[in-house]
Amino acid sequence: MEEKSSRILFIYTRTSTFINGDLDILSGRHIVTSLEVDNSTPSKQLFALIKEFFFLLANIKSYDVVYIWFADYHSFLPALFAKLAGKRCLLVIGGYDTCRVKKYKYGSFVNPLRGFMTRMSMKMATLNLCVSKYVERVVRAVAPGSATEVLYNGIRFEPAQVRKSAGPRQVLCVALATSPQAFHIKGVDRFIALAAAMPQYQFTLVGANMDRIWFLTGKIPANLSILPKVDHSQLRKFYSKSHVYCQLSRRESFSLALAEAMIHGCIPVITRVGGMPEVTGEFGESVFALFSDNFKSSGENSALESAKEAVENALAHKDNIAQAERIRTHFTFEKRAERLLELIK
Fold first, then answer.
1. Which of 166, 222, 322, 328 has the smallest number of Cβ neighbours within 10 A?
2. Could you report the average pLDDT of every consecutive run of 10 residues in the chain (345 residues)?
3. Can you list the alpha helix ranges (DSSP code H) found in 157-243?
């Protein structure tokens, strides 16, 4: 007997690889209506929230499930309407919605009103789908009593070259550094400092908008190439030719790029924060760094020296097959799809 399709209202603020992935999963089995709530500027967000209110008022009864990516201003009304109408509400918690970094004005909980709407969205949701165990712990702390489940992001695999060819050793970081906040949260300042401290190796940063962060970078080392955001399909060539993948973030809920790099045979070097240790497991190298550490100070016990040693150790790794297998085992697109479709039944 063919399974009955559900009518799903899919709400998001802007498209991304993982949001498009969930949309593909749900659209393949169910009837999905997408509602984009543009939050790119305050005025656009206000208009979009008003539009969202009237859309929900007129249409909420037409849907079986409300599916929302991220808890924020845009999730409050859908979660409320779903609760009042007796509809199921699945809320994906991705990381920004669990943060409060006052120094960089980063995270939903920096603003009290925004934090209230985020917390209430979590409490009203039928289930909060957390992208890592780390995120789940934070949700349970900020919104006690909320229903949670860990559902890792999934990687869509294509045949990947795992073994690296001989040649110059390359160190890669993929980070969407499109603002001063992202520049620091993603640890781009640390990556630049690390490149300067290791001139014998070639470093590449992909995803930086230099028009917005040029005043933060300082002098760019000669061995560091900085590239703007590229289409997701183009990242494979950077993963394939790199030997080490560095993610020196101050906050990180999961890191899809980290998992993608590992599946392409890059040895990971990470800071021990957020959900990244869940991705790497026992593989690669990790660095302990205080939130305030910008890798400018050197010395025997400094985070910079620890990061340099981690990169050297990563470059010396001979076996990168097992770590790629870890990603295939735990973080597949198919695994996420299977569980997501079970939840929608």
1. 166
2. 82 92 95 96 96 98 97 97 97 88 84 94 98 95 96 80 70 91 92 95 93 82 94 90 95 92 94 94 91 76 91 88 89 94 91
3. 180-185, 188-197, 210-217, 235-241
For the domain 170-329, what is the CATH code?
3.40.50.2000
**Residue 66 pairs with which residues in a beta bridge?**
9, 89
Which CATH architecture best describes the domain 7-151? 3-Layer(aba) Sandwich (3.40)
The Cα 324–Cα 164 span in angstroms is 13
Q: What is the pTM of this model?
A: 0.89
**Tokens encoding 108:** 């939903």
- Nearest partner of 9 among 69, 51, 50, 54, judged by Cα: 69
Residue intervals in the chain for CATH 3.40.50.2000: 7-151, 170-329
